[in-house]
Amino acid sequence: MEKGKTFMWAESIGILTHNQRVILGNTDSGEWIKISQECYHILQKVMQQQYTVQEVLNALQTEEDKVYMSDLIEKMFKLGVVTQSRQEKGEIPRYITFAITNRCNLRCKHCSVMAGDLPDALNLEGCKKVVEKILTLKPLQIVFTGGEPLLKKGIIQLLEYTRERFNGTIGIMTNGTLFTKENISKIIPLVDSIDISIDGIDEDTCALIRGQGVFSKVVNAVELIQEEGFKNISLSMVLTRENQPHTQEFYKLNQRLGTKPILRAFSPIGRGGVNRSELEIDRTEENLQESKIDNSDMKVCSCGALKRILYVDYSGNMFPCPVLFDKKYSMGNILEQKDLPYFFAEREIEKRSNYKSFLGLYPQNCSECKDCDVNLFCWSCLHHIDMLQKGIINKYPNCEARKRQLQNIIWEED
Fold first, then answer.
1. Most buried of 31, 183, 215, 366 (most Cβ within 10 A)?
2. What is the mean pLDDT of residues 390-402?
3. Given this model, what pLDDT does residue 290 score?
4. Residue 406: burial class (beta carbons within 10 Å; 0-12, 13-18, 19+)
5. What is the DSSP letter of 119?
6. What is the pLDDT of residues 321-352, one digit of tens each?
7. Of 3.90.930, 3.40.50, 2.60.450, 1.10.12, which CATH number belongs to 8-83?
8. Are the CB atoms for 246 and 260 separated by under 8 Å?
9. What is the rounded average pLDDT of the residues 199-213?
10. Are strands 13-18 and 21-26 parallel, antiparallel or unpaired?
């Protein structure tokens, strides 16, 4: 903070008001501060009149007010809700997920992308061209997924091609059923992490979602991979009505196998929509009332989509993230962008109408949520807002009950 310069609200700021209080939140970091409405109006006025920090302090009459305002402005700078320079450059995504195929050997009941028998739009050379484009972003991580990536013809060559040109983290997300001793020995020198979907704790619970025999194949694959000295393996489970009661047993399974547990939320789209009545967890208001929101480290909700995260589908189309792949959120085809870093850094992406549709998912922008006095805290993923706007869900899960709980926490002093 330079006291001789003017200051302004940061681009990432979110603002909530309630009675005579105002919350200023950083929607990137999740940090926030609560101030009086009087103080907020003063800050608004001095920013509009372009006062420097020192001029603001000089205008205050008492030493106590000067100290308070100086400490407050300094804290707001540290939290990132104010800045002294407008951010000219856009953010470049550094964590890229590339779905190299939609084909899959399984027909999981919850699959949101309806992975199946669609022919590949990109051959090996096409996938290499996508990787070349991704590398211009100087990513930190590239994750290959599908469908089932091990069905992709030339998957080993694609991993080799990427590893030769990329020193960052390479991951692969797979159903784990197609691993063999032969392909494991070729794959593990080329990747840093392997994420295997299992969705159960034993043969029976896994079979309910993924089919008979999958559980034993996954466990066998984990053991074969570990025999080669590779340890960075995670097992993931999408929470459904059937497996949610077994969450603790899922953690124990991972402990026994020496893997890392990942829990994912169920989405009622794709085959998940077809099987929704069977799979969706009952989220009645009564159930929520019995649970308590952890307020020990309450954060403003944030989303890295199109900031830190980018999803590229099996045709090369770019989307905000792996769960927001509706055409209305497409940012164009990656192969058609001559200068991908320029597209993001120089904010060319913001000129697209689909980008405006994406911004409309943020609660402070969408008609259903913009007037709510806890909308910076209530959501866990913009995908929920997308489903709300499409009518897939009638209301954000447990909206009224969650709202009351959050109001009691974040506005508790009012």
1. 215
2. 75
3. 44
4. buried
5. P
6. 999 999 999 999 999 999 999 999 999 999 99
7. 3.90.930
8. no
9. 96
10. antiparallel
CA nearest to 387, candidates 213, 214, 269, 230 = 269
> What are the φ/ψ torsions at residue 237 (nearest 5 degrees)?
-140, 120
Other beta carbons less than 10 A from residue 326's beta carbon:
16
Nearest CA among 366, 344, 365 for reference residue 94? 344
C-alpha–C-alpha distance, residues 209 and 204, integer Å: 9
pTM of the model as a whole: 0.91
User: Whose structure tokens read 């402070």?
Assistant: 364
Q: How long, in residues, is the chain?
A: 414
Nearest residue to 312 (alpha-carbon basis) of 188, 153, 175, 136: 136
Q: Quick one: tokens of 279?
A: 């799979």
H helices of 82-202, in order, are 124-135, 155-165, 181-187
Domains 8-83 and 95-288+295-327 in one fold: no
Q: What are the distances in angstroms from CA 387 to CA 1, 322, 393? A: 41, 15, 6
CB 383 within 8 A of CB 323: yes
Q: Where are the domains of the chain?
A: 8-83, 95-288+295-327, 363-413
Residue 283 above 70 pLDDT? no
Tell me if residue 388 falls in helix, strand or coil. Answer: helix
How much of the chain exceeds pLDDT 90, in percent? 79
